[in-house]
Write a structure and sequence with these properties.
The chain is about 35% helix and about 15% strand. It has about 425 residues and is an alpha/beta fold. The protein has two domains: about 210 residues, Rossmann fold, CATH 3.40.50; about 140 residues, Phosphofructokinase domain (Rossmann fold, 3-Layer(aba) Sandwich), CATH 3.40.50. Strands 3-2-1-4-5 form a five-stranded mixed β-sheet, sandwiched between helices. It has a four-stranded parallel β-sheet with strand order 7-8-6-11, with helices on both faces. Helix 1 packs across helix 11 and helix 8 crosses helix 9.
């Protein structure tokens, strides 16, 4: 049987490494045939826009291993339940049948797991011969059932390095100029990425973190800023875009996407204005935004290894005809009890029903008592995830050599779909 792979949701620095690992695993699996990739996620299946990946030269696949973005295009599309839109699922299964596709691999986060679960349940309801598996991906690190999510380790490394470097810049200027620098990072309900900023500081003497898990108090925040500046001369603030006030409302939010998620952003300038108004301190701010999830030049080697292992495991599920699963990471206990022992993980299968539409937030024990920094326990969890580097090759122009494939679409065999 042939396999269809698709990318969904916000892309990452390593999602194309997942795709390359899927292609390698499919080529090496005798029980599987050709690998199609849907253009722009589930939309590509509905529109029968399927890429014939086997026509791409091996050089493209080698380059994809270190290319950020989403090589096949992504989407944010919420499928209704099968009972509400049977014609939508009939179209999906018709496209799969037309191209002899017996396995579907959806590479994404919580919402993508929901899509994969709905397709799996619909296939069972109509006895469609389709194995469905999800491949994990999200820089938010909020997927349930797994120790860490592919994409997070690399984004966390980028944030930790950025905080370390901007702290040095601020320290040089603080006496006569800027006293506060604010970096806004992603994280709707979970503060994992904001926590990564804490890796750049051992004691938090000159750093504050604003977590979504801790209700934001303007008075407490301003007091903490003043205290840090008074003691050390400056402070770096890492603020999650999902910060909420004591009433549970986002500090800054706009419209909503297809999954009814509020579009976030704007916390950094909001905090900067508070500091100027209440403390009279000069501030600079920046928003990491797309940069934090596309910084392949700072990818974590641990993250890349996890990415490849999990993608290969998903192909194994498909080859065995197993459906409704996502491969996840389990951190192994340190049996030697040594502080410097390397952390190891194993890959396990988890049911999509325990992952879809669920969010894993920061444990309270990972956040300091005052709510503005990380604990030693959190540091022990985060540090292994950003270990190691695997830099992309660079060209003569001084820029990384990234893949820019020109894909060939399969000939359509069904009527058009609106």
């Amino acid at each position: 049987m042939n396999v269809c792979y698709a990318q969904s949701g916000g892309v990452t620095a390593v999602i194309n490494a997942s795709a390359a690992a899927v292609a390698d695993a499919v080529r090496g699996e005798k029980r599987l045939g050709k690998l199609y990739a849907a253009r722009n996620g589930i939309l590509g299946v509905l529109r029968e826009e399927l890429i014939e990946t086997w026509r791409a030269p091996q050089q493209i696949w080698r380059q994809l291993r270190h290319t950020p973005g989403g090589a096949f295009g992504s989407c944010r599309v919420k499928l209704p339940p099968h009972t509400d839109a049977p014609q939508t699922y009939a179209r999906l299964f018709a496209v799969f049948r037309a191209h002899d596709i017996g396995a579907f691999l959806y590479n994404g986060g919580n919402d993508s797991a929901d899509t994969a679960l709905k397709i799996m349940r619909a296939a069972r309801a109509v006895n469609a011969p389709l194995a469905v598996a999800a491949i994990p991906k999200t820089i938010d690190n909020d997927l349930a059932q797994t120790d860490a999510s592919p994409g997070f380790g690399s984004a966390a490394k980028y944030i930790a390095v950025t905080v370390a470097e901007t702290t040095l810049d601020l320290a040089a200027m603080a006496e006569t100029s800027t006293k506060v620098f604010i970096l806004e990072v992603m994280g709707r309900h979970a503060g994992w990425l904001a926590a990564a900023g804490g890796l750049a500081a051992k004691d938090g003497a000159r750093h504050l973190i604003v977590f979504p898990e801790i209700p934001f108090s303007r008075a407490r925040f301003i007091a903490a800023v003043k205290k840090k500046v008074c003691a050390g001369g400056y402070v770096v603030v890492v603020a999650s875009e999902g910060a909420r006030d004591e009433g549970g409302r986002f500090l800054s939010a706009g419209g909503s996407d297809a999954f009814a998620h509020r579009q976030l952003g704007g916390v950094a300038p909001l905090l900067a204005e508070m500091i100027r108004a209440d403390a009279g301190l000069k501030c600079h701010w920046a928003v990491a935004d797309y940069a934090q999830r596309s910084a392949r030049h700072l990818a974590s080697l641990a993250d890349l290894r996890h990415t490849r292992a999990l993608a290969a495991a998903a192909v194994g599920y498909a080859a065995a005809g197993k459906s409704g699963l996502m491969p996840v990471l389990r951190r192994l206990p340190n049996v030697n009890n040594a502080n410097n022992a390397a952390v190891k993980w194993e890959v396990k299968a988890a049911p999509l029903s325990k992952i879809a539409n669920k969010e894993r937030k920061m444990p309270r024990g990972f956040i300091s008592r005052d709510g503005f920094f990380i604990t030693a326990r959190c540091r022990r969890y985060l540090s292994p995830l950003i270990k190691g580097e695997e830099s992309p090759p660079y060209g003569g122009d001084g820029l990384p050599i990234y893949a820019r494939p020109q894909w060939q679409l399969a000939k359509k065999r069904l009527p058009g779909y609106k």
